[in-house]
Amino acid sequence: MSLETNNKQDGNFMCSQLFKELILQTEDQCREDIAMFARKYYTDNPQQLAYISEFENTYDPSEAITWYTRNTFLYRMVNKALRTQDHLVVYAFRLFIRNLHMKLNLLQAENKSINNKLVLYRGQSLTRDDFEKLKSNIGGLLSVNTFLSTSEKKDIALLFTGGTIEDSDTEGILFEIDISTNEVSSAPYANVDQFSAFQGTEKEYLFSMGTVFRIKSIDKISGSAVWNVRLSLTNHTDAQVENLNLYMRQGLQQCKTVLSKFTNLMQQMNFPEKALHFYMKNSDIEKNPIIEDITLKYLIGDLCLHANNYEGALNYYQKVLEDMNENMQEKPMFVCNLYNRIGNTYVKLGNLDLAHEFHQRAFDLALSLPEINQCQIAAHYIYQGDIVMEQNNMDAALIFYQKGLALLIAHLPSTHSSIAHTYSRIAHVYRQQEKIQEALEMFEKSLSVLVDSSAANHPSISATHRHISTLLWILARDEEALHHGLQALQIGANTLHVDDPQMKRRQDWVDFLRRDIHDHKCRLEENSHDWDQLLALIKGDVNTSS
Questions:
Q1: Domain ranges of the chain
Q2: Where do the MalT-like TPR region domain residues begin and end (predicted)?
């Protein structure tokens, strides 16, 4: 479950919904992908390996609910992948996810209840942190990215609360869900008892992924350690999230195949490695092999740029430039983006003259089009800001960034990630000018937009927490600094290998903060700050544009 506050749905939920929509558009019957991923995960578990073979040999779409309710690899892997937004695993399980969702849709349509009201229950334990989020969000939303099992039987649900266990880190929760059956829900749900492996014992109702509830009240159950959390089903859509959804869907609609839509979505979400993965799976992205080869090189260039391999990125982008012909001239926005990427790469390599040349090419092309793309004009201002910032002209950089930001705010959804990255650029200018409070405010704005536009484990969110942590420490707000440092570390742990140098730097920073809070004597005198030395523990963690 992901908890929403102030009636807002965050970027994590939005991204999962877009990905879910694409999963439901797939049509292939691919048990092999499921079996391959599951065997890798359960390589030393004979019982689950037997279930995997059974599934591979006997599975029928009509049995999706029965398979889900059995104690097998499917329930565990599907919900974990949906919860953590492991896009590659979710895609591998697309056949089963699609079958399960469609079966729930069908059952809901077939079994319209004659009763207008329905009360369902779900028992589980929550960490104290998650429970505090619930308590502070009464009247707000609770969104569920996974499939969700509930029961008509309150006594059955109570068995899953863990409410009798004395554990200071968790709370037993009984969710009580009030449903008006004549209202439209955000996702299908149905009574699945007749199909369940536990037929007749649990009176189970299953909700599909993407269900949204409103939190009505939270009270302690009399004479019990369990909390009763009352929810109501809703189809509420946050306006800001919906605007960004519509904007991203416009990009998806231009794609010819479902797999090319997955590639496009991963590009929009700034996951270049996953974009390349989906591109390579598609054998029919373009009928024109020249365009197909150009697009592949472009994606590899993006991956190199994301990995700070600037020479490699430049090599692939230049190959794209060499291969471009009249086919690509029909896609001027592609060409603009290519010029800007080459310009960005030259900035990273310190060749500012060539950076300016390619950014100017992109700008001139954008101005020559029948309809001027204001976001391309904004990009030109921002990239000019990058160049003059490299020249240590902070005042000029700030002017360029602010011009670009104004255009982005005027022409993009308010939660678009480009706005977040521009706030971050402005924050770095203020940081270089030693305007710490102003830098902090800009990073906080960046974080707010990123949370609303990106997957919860996106590297940019982790990087922004790290920057905020540093500035809070400079301002002697040590406890807050530790909180953001831990957030950076925890998010990084979901995306980086334990041996990645970034993880060590972030762990070192958190350890330093803990010692500093404990000792109260690691602060430098304000007048003797060497700002580069101050950040030595985390220098090089991420790109300054993050």
A1: 113-236
A2: 294-490
- pLDDT attached to residue 289: 65
CB 147 within 8 A of CB 206: yes
SS3 category, 234: strand
- Residue 38 CA to residue 241 CA, distance in Å, equals 34
pLDDT in tens, 158-179: 998 875 555 568 899 999 999 9
Query: How many C-beta neighbours within 10 Å does residue 245 have?
Result: 20
Instruction: Give the C-alpha separation, 230 to 177, whole Å.
Output: 6
Task: Evaluate whether the domain defined by 113-236 bears CATH number 3.90.176.10.
Answer: yes
> Residue 460 and residue 480: Cα distance in Å, rounded?
19
- Look up residue 295 and give its amino acid: T
User: For residue 287, is pLDDT > 80?
Assistant: no
Which two structure tokens, joined as six digits, stand for 516?
A: 């500093």
In the block, which residue shows the tokens 């004009």? 377
Q: What is the pLDDT of residues 521-543, one digit of tens each?
A: 444 444 444 445 555 554 545 44
Q: How many CA atoms lie within 13 A of 405 on its CB side?
A: 19
CB contact at 8 A, 286 and 292: yes
CA nearest neighbour of 127 among 173, 190, 87: 173
CB distance 487 to 499 below 8 Å: no
Q: Who's near 76: CB < 8 A, 6+ residues apart?
A: none
For residue 205, the 8-state DSSP code is E
CA 306/CA 328 separation, integer angstroms: 24
Taking the C-alpha atoms of residue 97 and residue 196, their distance in angstroms, rounded to an integer, is: 16
Nearest to 88 by CA among 14, 23, 147, 17: 23
Sign of the C-alpha dihedral, residues 88, 141, 189, 187? negative
Indicate the pairing of strand 170-180 with strand 226-234.
Answer: parallel
**Alpha-carbon distance values, 17 to 10, 144, 187, 188, 248 (Å):** 11, 10, 10, 14, 12
